[in-house]
Amino acid sequence: GEGHGGISLLLIDRDMPGFSRGRKLKKMGWWASDTAELFFEDCRVPVDRLIGVENAGFIAIMSNFLAERLSLSIMAYMTAQLAYEAALDYTRQRQAFGRPVSGFQVTRHKLVDMATRIDIAREYTYRCAALMQAGRNPIQQVAMAKNFSVEVCEQVTREAVQLFGGMGYMRESVVERLYRDGKILSIGGGTDEIMKELIAKQLRL
Q1: Lowest mean pLDDT segment, chosen from 58-67, 74-83, 192-201
Q2: What pLDDT is stored for residue 44 in this prediction?
Q3: DSSP category for residue 53
Q4: What is the 3-state secondary structure (H, E, C) of 91-146?
Q5: What is the overall mean pLDDT for the chain?
Q6: What pLDDT digit, counting tens, does each position of 99-137 carry?
Q7: For residue 150, which phi and psi values (nearest 5 degrees)?
Q8: What CATH topology corresponds to 3-51?
Q9: Which 3 state secondary structure label does DSSP give 46?
Q10: How far apart are CA 93 and CA 89, in angstroms?
Q11: DSSP string of 168-205?
Q12: pLDDT digits (tens, 9 = 90+) for 38-56
């Protein structure tokens, strides 16, 4: 078939003739997950390596997006949760002018805002999960949840680095890693912009 109607899913062994891997790519974050270039040069694939129905690969990929985006929403608010907890512990221990940093009003307000945003992101994501569990297809709500949770993740991890001060800029700091790792969540499963287009379509805009 033509276009998306001509896409099939295939299982490729790494020692299959014509298939090779390129260099491991250096990424901003997610260092624990290797990413490399894959090359297919005259790679002949036996028919028994077809996954599902021929030319139905695009449908299979699209059917997985809802669960993937919900998972990314969960990853986003949990990344924010980890950053918040680290910042909370650090500001309680760190002393400035004779008292813990958490004792200053500006710090308390930052932590309150972080906790509030995380809780809202979590509850809305739970709502989407409940809709899916009930057999619904909440495309709009899941896209909203992903975008909102990712925004919360970026805000909270940034504030966590700020609350750590210079220590937050160090590679040995957990918030530094969370700040970097969180960025991919606004790209994977469909970018923020794609999510907004999906939402707009559902709203008939």
Answers
A1: 58-67
A2: 92
A3: S
A4: HHHCEECCEEHHHCHHHHHHHHHHHHHHHHHHHHHHHHHHHHHCCCCCHHHHHHHH
A5: 96
A6: 999 999 999 999 999 999 999 999 999 999 999 999 999
A7: -65, -40
A8: Butyryl-CoA Dehydrogenase, subunit A; domain 2 (2.40.110)
A9: coil
A10: 6
A11: GGSTTSHHHHHHHHGGGGGTTTS-HHHHHHHHHHHTT-
A12: 999 999 999 999 999 999 9
Contacts of the segment 9-12: beta carbons below 8 A, 24+ positions apart: 9/50, 9/51, 9/52, 9/57, 9/60, 9/61, 10/45, 10/49, 10/50, 10/51, 11/49, 11/50, 11/51, 12/40, 12/43, 12/45, 12/49
Q: Which residue has the tokens 């809305």?
A: 124
Active site residues: 68
Domain boundaries, the chain: 3-51, 63-202
Angle at 66 between CA 61 and CA 71, to 5 degrees: 110
Sign of CA dihedral 72, 78, 79, 81: positive
Run of H or E residues at 48: none
For the chain, what percent of residues have pLDDT higher than 70?
Answer: 100
Q: Which fold has domain 63-202?
A: Butyryl-CoA Dehydrogenase, subunit A; domain 3 (1.20.140)
